[in-house]
Write a structure and sequence with these properties.
By secondary structure, the chain is mainly alpha-helical. It has six helices and no strands.
Amino acid sequence: MAKNWWKILSVMLLLYVIIGGFMVPVPVIGNNQQAARSIFFHLPMWMAMYTLLTISVVNSIWYLATNDLRRDVRASSAGSVGVLFGVMGFLTGMLWATYTWGGTIVNDPKQMTTAIALAIYMAYLVLRMSFTDIDKRPAYRRSITFSRSPSSSPDLHHPRTVDSLHPGSASSPGFSDKDTAGTIKMVLWPAFIGFTLLGIWIYTLRNRYKRLALKNIIHG
């Protein structure tokens, strides 16, 4: 029980977020209306993605330095789970855009660059799966490691000064200024922690599974 406290915390926080996300009052900003509640799920998924991609690139560098296959397994596990959360973040953003911008996919720089970045990450996962020879992975890892760093993550290269339809950009009002009662922060900050812990939880499960698969390959 003592080792699993963070898993229990994750479940409790996510239950709080799910209930609070649909119950707390949210400020009406423009035509957002109740669609603003998607922020409780959309942004935390990006936070979980950034955390997992950071774990992935750190273990990738560690693998290059030590040639320890366990680090390779951790890197690939964290990367795949990070992409999963990135896709979910993108899908929740598309749902919000449908009711707020009037279209699922619109000509917004952040949305378009996010779609391109996720496509590159998924191509990386497919390419990695094509390498069945463990001995060929080091050369491949050297060429791909730094392209998967959080600095190349979706949405990171578009600061608030860039003209975008996204709230908080140069031409769109943000939520924080209108959240005078603090109800959004009451749910959003626990959501950041809860979804990040959930992502790490899934990562540890996938890492255990892939390590067992690796043992079977090595020992036959």
